[in-house]
Design a protein that fits this description.
Layout lengths: L19 E4 L4 E4 L9 E8 L5 E8 L4 E8 L5 E9 L11 E2 L6 E5 L7 E5 L5 E3 L7 E6 L3 E6 L8 E9 L5 E3 L3 E2 L6 E6 L5 E8 L2 E9 L5 E6 L12 E7 L6 E7 L10 E6 L19 H8 L3 E5 L9 H4 L8 H14 L5 E11 L1 H12 L4 E7 L10 H8 L6 H6 L12 E7 L8 H13 L4 E5 L10 H16 L1
Parallel strand pairs: 22-23, 22-24, 24-25, 25-26, 26-27
Antiparallel strand pairs: 1-2, 3-4, 4-5, 5-6, 7-8, 8-9, 9-10, 11-12, 12-13, 13-14, 13-15, 16-17, 17-18, 18-19, 20-21, 21-23
């Protein structure tokens, strides 16, 4: 059946969105007078004031380089004032609603635009701003009880997530005093936490590379802690080889990129083994964490059982490493990311047990773009690739995400040309399987179909497989078929 899809692509006219306030007693709606940037704008993170008399909206212009945090009257939608602004020559990406600190009249605001990392700030409607977290690391708000602000932070390590709090007091004149941070989670690893309403207890579910899931409940004052659950090794009855968590230098030499590495079961260092790189690499992702086996995917373990070395690495452009690291991709999506992946694979290829002539790569969505690009740009390294739902041409991607990182095709023609994989179709030498879903409404099938046409014109010969009636990726019972298909392609060609 035909499914109509609203999908404005980069450079096209976007949607015109308004925020309405519906009055239940009067059965009427008023709309906020949010027209800072005219038709081409984004209205994000709509937040109510505690007294419900005002609504706050972060208004972005079409370029996503300029943001205004505005205050509106809920009764009639009238604009009252701009509380603060953010401007950045790459992008501004407000991703959090306002969190109000008790009844102080102040709110907690997160941004990476002021100090280079996603830190928390205490603000009020008069424009006063006090920095809460003063660390060179990304943090995330968790809870508040009017006196304490709880947050998780990457300051111990970008692959670890720990819970902290700071005491905050506000006097009658509005002056703010912020105490020293207190770390609440001490065990190594990645902690997922919940704090109770009054800020006296927290529930901590965590794991680390060699420790499966542990669940604790502890008091914030540090006097009481009780382990509720400690998981046994879920893989103890399965055959698998050595697993490693480590770092490798980024292509520009400025950063340590984290990786996880799985050696084959019954590994023999005197033999040579093929490698499969599993890659995503796009914004808002972190593939490698100091959690159970580095956030392993069981397909990776399966491939290691079948005699492959499996390598997974984060790169510039992913999150939790600060603004400079994350925004290195601006206008050239896939370039810095790809360079970092190649730097990691090149280091891996120096090991005596790696078969340098049998390197494969697999990824989906942004990872599908990376897989296809690596096959086309580095045929001397990558011999086999399986790309799922790939972005081929950023001109076909949706307007907000695409323009945030790439601007428009008109304003950034060189970037769109350089990152358009159709222009590289003639460079395919190895075995490349493209998998796409016929109902994909994220990376629309136009990507894959246009690439196939480019390959036909260039006389290169990728393989294609379509999953009917699935959207972006394959779910349910068919997912078993998907992973069997991927595995067979590597076994047949690598």
């Amino acid at each position: 059946s035909l499914v109509n899809l609203k999908y404005p692509m980069t450079g096209m006219d976007s949607e015109n969105v308004r925020v309405g306030v519906y009055n239940l007693s009067e059965n009427s709606t008023v709309y906020l007078q949010a027209d800072d940037f005219g038709y081409d704008q984004y209205l994000t993170n709509v937040s109510w004031a505690p007294d419900c008399r005002h609504i706050f909206v972060q208004v972005l212009d079409r370029t996503q380089r300029h943001m205004r945090l505005n205050m509106y009257r809920a009764s009639d939608g009238k604009f009252e004032k701009t509380i603060l602004t953010e401007d950045n020559d790459k992008w501004v990406e407000p991703s959090d609603q306002l969190e109000w600190l008790g009844f102080t009249g102040k709110f907690i605001y997160r941004t990476d635009n002021r100090d280079g990392y996603k830190n928390l700030y205490l603000c009020d409607t008069l424009g006063n701003i006090d920095r809460i977290t003063k660390v060179a690391a990304d943090v995330k708000f968790v809870a508040e009880n009017g006196e304490k602000i709880f947050y998780t932070s990457a300051e111990v390590s970008p692959v670890e997530n720990h819970l902290f709090y700071v005491n905050v007091s506000v006097n009658r004149k509005g002056a703010v005093k912020i105490g020293a941070p207190v770390r609440l989670t001490k065990d190594e690893g990645w902690h997922n936490v919940q704090v109770n309403t009054d800020g006296t207890w927290f529930l901590d579910s965590y794991s680390s590379f060699n420790v499966p899931n542990v669940v604790k409940v502890a008091s914030v004052d540090g006097k009481t802690s009780r382990t509720l659950f400690s998981a046994e090794d879920p893989l103890k009855e399965y055959a698998y080889g050595e697993m490693t968590l480590g770092t490798v230098k980024s292509a520009d030499g400025k950063y340590d990129n984290w990786y996880r590495l799985f050696l084959p079961a019954n590994f023999d260092p005197s033999k040579k083994y093929p490698v499969v790189l599993y890659v995503y690499g796009g914004p808002h992702s972190q593939m490698v964490k100091d959690s159970w086996l580095g956030q392993i995917r069981l397909w990776e373990l399966y491939m290691a059982q079948h005699g492959y070395i499996v390598y997974v690495q984060d790169n510039r452009g992913t999150e939790n490493r600060g603004a400079e690291y994350e925004k290195a991709i601006k206008n050239y999506c896939g370039q810095a990311e790809m360079a970092d992946q190649v730097a990691g694979i090149s280091e891996l290829m120096t090991l005596p047990y790696v078969d340098k002539n049998r390197i494969g790569v697999h990824g989906w969505s942004f990872g599908g773009h990376m897989t296809t690009a690596l096959m086309l740009r580095y045929p001397e390294i990558f011999k086999v690739g399986v790309a799922g739902g790939p972005v081929i041409d950023w001109g076909y991607y949706e307007v907000m995400y695409g323009e945030r990182y790439m601007d428009t095709p008109k304003s950034n023609p060189e970037g769109y040309k350089e990152c358009n994989l159709k222009n590289l179709a003639g460079q395919l030498e190895g075995h490349l399987l493209i998998i796409h879903d016929d109902h994909d409404d994220t990376c629309v099938p136009q990507h894959t179909l246009s690439f196939m046409k480019a390959c036909v014109d260039a006389r290169t010969y990728p393989d294609l497989f379509i999953y009917p009636c699935h959207k972006h990726n394959v779910a349910g019972r068919d997912r078993v078929h998907l992973h069997e298909k991927i595995t067979r392609y590597f076994e047949q060609n690598l």
